Model the fold of this input.
Amino acid sequence: MKILAPISRYTELPALIKNGADEFYMGIFSQDWHKKNQFYNHLNRRDNILANTTSFLEAKQVINSARKNNKKVNVVFNTDTIFSGTHQINNELKKIIEIKPDAIIAKDPIIIKLIRKLTKSLPIHLSSLDQVINTKSAQFWCKNFKINRIILPRNLTINEISNLAKNLPQIEFEVFIYDDNCSNIDGLCSSIHFMKPDGIEFVCEREPLYTSIDKKLEKNFQTIIRQKTLCRACFLSLFKEQKNIVSGKIVGRDRSARDKGLMVLFIKQAQNIAQNYPNHLQFQKKAKLLHQIIFKKNYCHICPYAPKD
Amino acid sequence: MLQKTNQAIQILTPQQFDTYLPKYDNFYIGSNTCPFLLPQPEIFQSYLKKSQKNKKRLTLLTPLLPNNYFEYLDKIIKIIKNNQAENIFELVFNDWGGWDYLKNKNIKLIAGIFIANQKKDPYYAHFKTKFDKICTYNVINNPLFADWLLKNEIDTIELENLGQGIALDNLKNLKINLYTPYIIFSLSRTCPLALIKQANNYLKIIKNCPNYCLNPQNQPLQFTNKYYTSFYKGNFQTYKSTRQIEKNRFNKIINNSLLLEPKVS
Done:
C-alpha cells in the first residue's frame, strides 16, 4: 500500500518524501476562477489558500520535482457542476491537464465526462464523496466512467472494505489511513464545508452543542459524538495482502507542514511494523505505542478498527 | 412551467399509514437515511396490498445501500411482480449502485435527495444575500446533468424545500418532487442514538437496530441559536423550513412532518 500524502506547498515536498510518502495529492488555487467567482473558489472543497498550491506554476513545480523522485502527484477537482455553464470548468480542467498530473480526483459524473473528452489517457480517481459502499456502485462507476481507482469513503467497516476489494480484484482502491474529525457521511454533507461564513462553525462542529430534556441521553450523546479517531493504521496490517488496495490516504491539505510530516512519518513506521509483525494484535500494540510517542495520545480505545481487549 | 402538483406523505409506521389513508393518495415508506428503517418484506407486502385495494400509490425510499441489502431489493421486486403492482409503485434511490441494479426491472425509479446534493446548512437561509447563487443552485441546474439523467430514463428527482430557496432554471424536462417542511442537512452511518442504547462508548457502524428512533420516548436532541433550531434524530440532523412553496412548479409535494411530529402539520 502506497502512502498518499497531502501537499499544498512546493517547500513541503522534500521532507514528506524523506519521511516516507509515496504519492501526493493537492488542490490548486486558481486565480482566474477566484476573480470570476469571488469567494466561491472551492473547486476542490477547500477554499482555504493554505490548503492549495498558490498557483498552477507552483503545482507544476511540485509535479516535476516529485517525478524526479519517482513519486506521483494527483490533483483534486472534486467539485460539482452547479453552475449552468461548464465553460469555466472546462478551462480549469484544461489548465490542470496541461501541467500533466498523474491523476485527477473527481466526483461529478459530468466533470468526469468532460475530463474524458479532453484526455483519454489521464487516470481518474473517483472521489470518496461518491460514497461507493457496495460492489454495484463500484461497478457502475468503473463501467460507465472508466474510473482507474476508487477512493473508498471513510465510513466503511473492515468487512465492507475487504468484500469490495476481494469481489472486485480488477479495481484499484484507496482507503483513508489517517483521517480528520468528521463522523458524518462527507459525500452527503450539505454544509458548504470549505466556507466558514462570518466565522460560523461547520455542521460537524455544532454537534456537541445538542441538548435534550433527557439529561442522561444528552450527556451520553455529547460524550459519544466526541469519540472520533483520526488513526486508521490498522489497515496497514489488515489489508497488506490485498494487492488492489493500492493506497492509504492521509487527510489534511490544510494542516501545517510539521503535522503532515509527522503523519507521514507515523504511517511509514507503522507500515514497517506491519511488515515485521504479521500478527495483527502484535502490530496494534506496537503501532499504538508509536502513535503515543509521536502524537502524545492514541485512539485505540475509541477506534472501531482496533482490536479490543 | 406550471403543472398539477400531487401530494404525498412520508410515514414511518403501519399505524400512520392507516391514519392518513383517507387523506393522501401517495405514501412514502422506508427511509432516505437508514437501511434499518426499510420495511420488512411482509410489512411491505401489507402496505402494497392496502395501496392496491384503496387505489393509492406507494413509494419506497432507499438510502445508501450496504451490500447485503441487494437481496432485500430482490424480495421487494418479487413482491411487486407477484402482485402486478408496477403501475402503483415507485422507488427512490440515493445510491447509484441501487439504480444500476434496478434500472431494467420495469419499475419507476426516482433520484433521491442525496443525488441532487443541495447545500442545506440551515445558516444559509440567514445569509442569503451573501451566498444566494451558491446555496440555491445544485447539480440539476446544469443542463448537462439534467440531460444525462433524462438519457438514463430518470425523469424525476427529489429536492428539499430549503430555507434559502431553490433555483429552478435549466431543469429541461426533469420533474421535481419536493420535501417539506423538514430538511436533512447531515447524515452519519454511525447512529449515536443506537450506539447509546446499545451501551457503546465510541462511534461505529452498528449491525442491527430495533429502530430506537421510532420510539416516541426517544425524543430528538435539539440545538438552538439566534438563527435557527435544529434536531438530531437517529443518525441525521434536520431543521424545519418555513419557506412558502410555489406548488405548481413541482410535480409532487411530500409532507415529511411525521419525521419529527406526531401529527401532520
